[in-house]
Design brief:
By secondary structure, this protein is of the alpha/beta class. It is built from 9 helices and 6 strands; from the N terminus they run ααβαβαβαβαβαβαα. A 6-stranded parallel sheet has the order 3-2-1-4-5-6, sandwiched between helices. Strand 4 (about 100-105), helix 6 (about 105-115) and strand 5 form a beta-alpha-beta unit. The N and C termini lie far apart (about 40 Å). Mean pLDDT is about 85; it is low at about 185-205.
């Protein structure tokens, strides 16, 4: 698979991570500019891709406090612990909730996350690290708020539709390369002007 000119080998080695993040944000969640997103097991990749996609707010959830700084360095505006993330999301969003959440954990984390979704929110499952029993949908819970649920597996996609995976991966590399280059150019301009900090987060949009 061709790698765009100028992409270093270290970045190319992360092709699976980038492809998964891109697939989650652009194919499964179909995140639109101005929307907000909550990501469990927050780390590099997904947060950065969400920022490049134009997310207004990117919230991360981690299991331990020592993981928070790493998440903040990779695109997450606010990072919460699993113990109270629902209350934190409600506070940060002014009670509105988020447009999307991404969950690789399952079980209790999945069930608790459902309450963080805004009207027309999308719930994305891409793993079951908890080993909990499969979740079943209750339409009485979903229909009144027009919620939807999606699943994503990069390995299953590679088996079922390898050409689709190739196209997705090439798009992820192109978008990632262009986005990182633009961010680097912006940072050089900011530093030259006497600034060094990233732009402040925009507030999640309140209306559709």
């Amino acid at each position: 698979m061709p790698v765009p000119d100028g992409l270093d080998l270290r970045a190319a080695a992360l092709i699976m991570v980038l492809s998964t993040a891109y697939g989650l944000i652009h194919e499964a969640a179909r995140l639109r500019p101005g929307e907000s997103i909550l990501v469990h097991s927050a780390a590099g990749g997904v947060g950065t891709v969400a920022r490049l996609a134009g997310a207004a707010a990117v919230y991360g959830v981690v299991s331990r406090p020592d993981k928070a700084d790493h998440a903040r360095a990779h695109g997450y505006g606010e990072v919460y612990l699993e113990r109270d993330f629902e209350a934190q999301v409600r506070r940060a969003s002014g009670g509105r909730g988020v447009d999307v959440f991404l969950d690789p954990v399952g079980g209790d984390i999945w069930r608790r996350s459902l309450g963080t979704l805004a009207l027309f929110g999308r719930a994305i499952s891409f793993g079951n690290a908890s080993g909990a029993d499969p979740w079943t949908a209750d339409m009485a819970q979903w229909a009144p708020r027009a919620l939807s649920v999606h699943g994503f597996s990069i390995l299953s996609l590679g088996t079922a539709a390898p050409r689709r995976l190739r196209a997705l991966t090439e798009a992820a590399l192109r978008r990632g390369h262009a986005g990182w280059r633009n961010r680097a150019d912006h940072r050089r301009v900011s530093l030259g002007a006497g600034g060094g900090g990233p732009p402040a987060d925009r507030q999640p949009r309140q209306h559709r």
